[in-house]
Amino acid sequence: MKKLISICLAAALLAGCLVGCGRTEGPANNPSTPNGSSAGGGEGLGDPQSFKFGLTVANTHPYSVAAQNFAKLVEEKSGGNMKVDLFYDGALGDDAALIESMQMNAVTFALVGPAGIAPMCPIYGFFDLPCLFQTRDAAYAFQESDAVWELMSSLSTNGIRGLGFYENGYYSISNNGKEITTVDGLNNLKLRSMTSDMAIKSWECLKVQPVAMPFGELFMAMQTGTVDGQETTIGSFYTSKFYEVQKYLTMANRIYHTMTFLMSDTAWNNLTEAQQNILLDAVNESKLAHKDYMTTYNEDAIKDMVDNHGLVVSELADGEFEKMREMSQSVYELVRGYDEDMYDKLIAAAEEANAAFPAE
Question: What is the DSSP letter of 225?
């Protein structure tokens, strides 16, 4: 059954066409093979291949686990013809360094969030818009839309290629002072922000005082009171042990964070069609397995933090998510200004996905 799902998803990738950031006219440059055929298990494979996969997180992080599954699937499906070596904890560099290395074909794969891609493709910040998705299923449906693959295909003009997405999860907001169940509860809190204009403005419109700083400095900043709190996924909160310096966690679901599975475009073009299809199958199969893994992982992590570390977990009251989205409309307008045509296609796809998978 998984194989059938993988083949269907791989075929869906054929919808992409080359427009968007640095758009040029020409044939579609999407992650599918030219004729959409699917081959695997060693049929038509060329020379043996060894790939470098750069990760900026620890080997226990949820999307590192997904990358490990991907590597295992590639080796199995290729009968050992293709092998993936994983490098953790930023051993091959941060997001910017990994992208540059992929452009030079020194690194083959990386998982990069929207903020890491936005410097070369500003409209990619769309993925980090506040309150964009009501449910995880809506986010997954959006990722398979024509508009998303149209945007993804444009990345090849920068020497990289998008093969798919891994879920990083919804962001939750933490602080060390009080339980928060309303948007007004965020007023005047000093919360860590990324350095982009979009990230800063998305906090300011909620009357938060954003403090821009690297993620690596955050634990100490929370410990010393330089900031009151932060926002990140359950996986990052748990593996970073933020529960040691933060007592309250609000499941605000303000941002659904996704990691784009990127590949060196040069490396892709050097592969046979059969090898390309093996990679596509492995990405899609590991993506589906990762979705199931994330459900259990988040539940177990929250239970451990509540039971063994005293974390207080809350949800937003009814109507607060909608209020937060209304307050964030200036951020939507900011992103629309990056590429109005692409934005309109993406927002239509997001609305269609939300309508198909509404919150209960």
Answer: T
